[in-house]
Amino acid sequence: MPGGPRQRGRYHHGDLPSALLDAGLEQLATAGPAGFSVAEVARRVGVSTAAPYRHFTDRDGFLAAVAARAAERLAAAVAAAATDDDPRDRLAAAAGAYAVFVAEHRTGFDVVYAPALRAARDADLAAAGRAVMALFLDPAREIAGDGALELTEQVVALAHGYATLDAEGFLTADRVTDVPTATRARRAARALIDGAAG
Amino acid sequence: MPGGPRQRGRYHHGDLPSALLDAGLEQLATAGPAGFSVAEVARRVGVSTAAPYRHFTDRDGFLAAVAARAAERLAAAVAAAATDDDPRDRLAAAAGAYAVFVAEHRTGFDVVYAPALRAARDADLAAAGRAVMALFLDPAREIAGDGALELTEQVVALAHGYATLDAEGFLTADRVTDVPTATRARRAARALIDGAAG
DNA sequence: GTCTATAGAGCGATAGAC
DNA sequence: GTCTATCGCTCTATAGAC
């Protein structure tokens, strides 16, 4: 390897789009969607601030592509956790996994369905969004039938609330218990499901 | 009234700090805490971008003062809604009122307890935060006793999730029902409370 | 107490060299 | 396909006139 990588000087890259997406995930996780900066991502990768615009149309197009990748991972994380046979356990586990992933990666339904990103018309993002939604809707249908939409909304809101409050440091600030967020969110979801479905 | 107000030219003001706070509430509601801009608030009021710095130390100090005023109104809104004798109804009503207010004014526990604003050490903000919290904690104690903290966390997370998803347009996007957010959040909270407390 | 003016920074996006 | 360089914009915050 002659010459270290990530140097500030001249060089070019193997697969810049992929490297940009990877760095974009980190940037999204640390700065959130509002603070997401194309220039900062370019800096992380070690290319000029102009380079990303060769591969993505504009900031929102880039952010949509990053969000799509994040949403795919979110779907995978939720699917990996929601494996119980009992639909109530499965739905509750989905909520717990959602809360933790979204707190950590700052990409949930708020980002996936953000109006600004809808304009980007990213097919991957839309597909990933539907995939995540299905992981909540499917067990909700088994539990509540016609009331599945309402139950899904309730459980998603609960999980999203845990995610955002945790990301903001609210839940961990004056913590009394050391029960992890995933468990607390899952328990809360289970209580909600039991209370809603009787 | 000689000479219209809000002109771009020279003039001075009756009570600029109060006018800045009022405009700051609007700015916070529309742009959210991340997009909150001192310059934009000054423009709304019709003064120079330097004027606010005569009355507030810096951006975060100003934002903390605005958030304090918002939090006081949040406490009032929740208190006005949570009047039931039955503590379960009262807690659920608090959740519904919280969801609506926070969706509309973009000031909830995430802003009140934001690390960046803690540095401003605004006593009003801290007091308002405790006042809101008490409105959840008090009925939770009646319902759950030792489990009040856990129940409060669950209900607050649920209400906050409704608020953020509604603010992001997620709940209203492909709405099937026309039941208002306040009612849906309250119902969800009631189900959660019943499920948690048996 | 409010103004004008400005410094200094960051970002989005484009033009043109290589 | 990546670079350098740059424009135009917005923002925070300060200095000094009035």
Compose a concise summary of this entry.
Chain A is mainly α and 198 residues long.
Describe the structure.
The structure is a homodimer of 198-residue chains. The relative contact order of chain A is 0.12. The N and C termini of chain A lie far apart (64 Å). By secondary structure, chain A is an all-alpha fold. The longest helix of chain A is centred in the middle third of the chain and has 23 residues. Chain A has ten helices and no strands. At the A-B interface, helix 8, helix 9 and helix 10 of A face helix 1, helix 8, helix 9 and helix 10 of B. Chain A binds a DNA duplex (18 and 18 nucleotides) through helix 2.
Q: Hey, which two chains have the biggest interface?
A: A-B, 39 and 39 residues
Radius of gyration of chain A, in Å, reads 19 Å
Number of helices of chain A: 10
Binned, the helix content of chain A reads 55-70%
Give the structural class of chain A: mainly alpha
The CATH superfamily of chain A appears as Tetracycline Repressor, domain 2
What low-confidence regions of chain A span 5 or more consecutive residues with pLDDT below 50?
Answer: 1-9
* Elements of chain A, N to C (H/E): HHHHHHHHHH
Averaged pLDDT of chain A: 93
Distance N to C terminus of chain A? 64 Å
CATH-defined fold name of chain A: Tetracycline Repressor, domain 2
| Main beta-sheet strand count, sense and barrel state of chain A | none
CATH architecture of chain A: Orthogonal Bundle
List the helices and strands and how they pair.
Two copies of one chain form a homodimer.
Chain A: H1 16-31, H2 38-45, H3 59-81, H4 87-105, H5 109-112, H6 115-118, H7 123-144, H8 148-167, H9 170-173, H10 181-197
Helix pairs in contact in A: 1-2, 1-3, 3-4, 3-7, 4-7, 4-8, 4-10, 7-8, 8-10
The first copy, chain A, binds a DNA duplex (18 and 18 nucleotides) through helix 2.
